[in-house]
Design a protein that fits this description.
Elements lengths: L3 H23 L6 E16 L8 E3 L2 E11 L2 E15 L10 E16 L9 E16 L8 E21 L2 E18 L16 H8 L1 E4 L5 E11 L5 E13 L5 E15 L1
Antiparallel strand pairs: 1-2, 1-3, 1-12, 3-4, 4-5, 5-6, 6-7, 7-8, 8-9, 8-10, 10-11, 11-12
Length: about 270
């Protein structure tokens, strides 16, 4: 006959096994969200590139954004393809001197952020991580015979930070977020002076020459910042409307210096998948 002690101990063991099973399998997993995003808007550019002109060129190209975002309880990852297409010109332009360029900018970026519990104790939740960006800026200036094509290409690794806060608007949970990014290490490719091409030598390799003249730069030679302020408003089906304001600038401190600044406004829809 079993003693009452072993009987009670067996029941207690079964209870704890049942509780552990419930904790492991009975609870729902933390929410995870994935979104596809399409955004459209306008960007204001100010560019000073001596390969085009010593003058500053300005304009308001069309801005297009395609993105994929994955959100977990403790992390955010985002892959984005953004493009600006339009025209830049100088305020000193005349009919005889058009001083205008067709402008194309394409950025491919990936960002990964982790939640920082020590800083996420107040109204805002904070994330910290890094990013990679492939930046391509191309200007076509027909009036420049020897500098028709000018470009700036930068592959960058940097640090990112994000703060966000959720609040209620008409019984809907709206998210306000800000993201900042700083370039730490960059590989920069620029055209040669006036973009001249050695057409006399049939064995001349223009691409090889550009790569040989490229530079690996740190923050002191290629300073810049990227900032995004956004508002995500929920709509039917778990989808969202996103209003975003972007501001960024960079300065390339090389033989052919470049100063570039950008403001951008986009309205996008985020589809939950």
């Amino acid at each position: 006959m079993k003693s009452p002690f072993f009987f009670r101990a067996g029941n207690l063991a079964l209870f704890w096994l049942f509780w552990i099973a419930q904790a492991a399998f009975g609870q729902e997993a933390p929410p995870r969200f994935r979104y596809l995003e399409l955004g459209l808007g306008s960007a204001a550019h100010r560019l000073q590139d001596p390969a085009v002109s010593p003058m500053a060129y300005t304009g308001a190209p069309l801005a297009i954004v395609l993105g994929f975002e994955k959100r977990k309880p403790h992390s955010i990852s985002r892959l984005a393809l953004a493009g600006d297409l339009g025209r830049l010109s100088s305020k000193n332009a005349t009919e005889l001197r058009p001083m205008a360029s067709s402008f194309f900018q394409i950025n491919l970026s990936y960002q990964y952020l982790r939640r920082v519990p020590a800083l996420s104790t107040g109204r805002f939740t904070w994330f910290f991580g890094g990013y990679y960006r492939w930046h391509n800026s191309i200007r076509l200036t027909p009036q420049n015979d020897t500098g028709f094509i000018s470009f700036f290409i930068a592959n960058t690794l940097g640090a990112s930070i994000r703060g966000e806060r959720a609040f209620q608007i008409r019984e809907k949970e709206v998210t306000l977020g800000w993201t900042g990014a700083l370039p730490l290490l960059s590989h920069v490719i620029r055209p040669s002076y006036l973009n001249l091409y050695n057409y006399i030598d049939p064995e001349h390799d223009w691409l090889k020459e550009r790569l040989e003249e490229s530079e690996v730069l740190t923050l002191n030679r290629f300073p810049g910042i990227q900032s995004r302020l956004e508002l995500a408003y929920p709509i039917a089906g778990g989808n969202q409307l996103r209003f975003a304001y972007d501001w960024e600038f960079y300065h390339y401190d090389g033989q052919r210096r470049v100063n570039a600044a950008r403001h951008g406004f986009t309205l996008g829809i985020r589809i939950r998948i």
